[in-house]
Every structure is written in structure tokens, then in C-alpha cells.
């Protein structure tokens, strides 16, 4: 079966935001999920070429794929809450005992907003795993 291209989407709900992602590999799927979280609340392209950004490497330690997805979603909320920043680019690579996320962060206030900012990660419907056409993952954020 043919693996479809990487991508993502989000589905807003009254008090939740459902993020869906898919890709040929687990790591790409995780990176797509991070991008979907950003795009659900802001337009990364609105940063413009002169926007102040900073690069950040972070390791998410986990043995289960679900814990990796949950850990990345919690990091996203930390970047947003602690620094008012969101990733406009994310790369995820496997490392022993987890994954390393390399992100380019930009201040949310410099972007055009597209939705309300999430405040918590829920474990409702958290899923990640291989499928016949690649990897799929889903996470729900409370807004």
C-alpha cells in the first residue's frame, strides 16, 4: 500500500481542540502534530521574514509512543504558557529512550491568531501508531 504524504489537521470543539497528524514515520507524525497545534491557534506564515525566533532542542524521554505524543503536547503548552511562544517549525528525531524535538519558536503575539490557545492536554482519545498507509496520531487539548 502507498504511504500518503505527511500532513495534519485540527478540529475545534466547544471546549476542546482535536489535533490529527499522519506521516510515513513516527517521528514525522509527531512533528506534524506539533505543527497542527500551532496552526490551530496561529498562522505561522504571518511571522514575516524579520520575526524574532529562537531555536530550541528538547528531549522527551518515554518508552511508549503515547507518552512521546503526550510529552510533546505538554512541551507545546509549556512553551506557550512560560514564554508566550509557539513553534513555527518542528523536527523530531529518535534518540535512545525517547525523541529529540528541534523547534523554532516565535512569540505568539507576533502572529495572526486563528483560534483560542489551549490550556491543558487531555488523555481522551490520545493515540499514535502505525497504519497501512504510514503513522497516525491524535491528541485532544482543552481550550
From TrEMBL:
<dbReference type="GO" id="GO:0008033">
    <property type="term" value="P:tRNA processing"/>
</dbReference>
<dbReference type="InterPro" id="IPR036820">
    <property type="entry name" value="Archease_dom_sf"/>
</dbReference>
<keyword id="KW-0106">Calcium</keyword>
<keyword id="KW-0819">tRNA processing</keyword>
<keyword id="KW-0479">Metal-binding</keyword>
<dbReference type="Pfam" id="PF01951">
    <property type="entry name" value="Archease"/>
</dbReference>
<protein>
    <submittedName>
        <fullName>SHS2 domain-containing protein</fullName>
    </submittedName>
</protein>
<comment type="similarity">
    <text>Belongs to the archease family.</text>
</comment>
<dbReference type="GO" id="GO:0046872">
    <property type="term" value="F:metal ion binding"/>
</dbReference>
<feature type="domain" description="Archease">
    <location>
        <begin position="11"/>
        <end position="141"/>
    </location>
</feature>
<dbReference type="InterPro" id="IPR023572">
    <property type="entry name" value="Archease_dom"/>
</dbReference>
Amino acid at each position: 500500500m502507498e504511504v500518503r504524504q505527511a500532513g495534519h489537521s485540527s478540529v475545534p470543539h466547544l471546549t476542546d481542540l482535536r489535533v490529527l497528524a499522519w506521516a510515513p514515520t513516527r517521528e514525522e507524525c509527531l512533528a506534524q502534530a506539533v505543527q497542527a497545534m500551532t496552526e490551530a491557534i496561529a498562522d505561522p506564515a504571518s511571522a514575516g521574514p524579520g520575526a524574532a525566533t529562537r531555536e530550541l532542542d528538547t528531549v522527551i524521554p518515554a518508552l511508549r509512543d503515547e507518552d512521546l505524543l503526550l510529552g510533546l503536547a505538554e512541551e507545546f503548552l509549556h512553551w506557550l504558557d512560560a514564554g508566550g511562544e509557539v513553534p513555527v517549525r518542528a523536527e523530531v528525531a529518535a534518540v535512545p529512550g525517547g525523541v529529540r524535538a528541534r523547534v523554532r519558536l516565535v512569540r505568539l503575539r507576533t502572529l495572526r491568531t486563528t483560534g483560542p490557545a489551549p490550556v491543558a492536554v487531555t488523555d481522551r482519545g490520545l493515540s499514535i501508531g502505525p497504519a497501512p498507509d504510514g503513522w497516525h496520531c491524535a491528541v485532544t487539548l482543552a481550550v
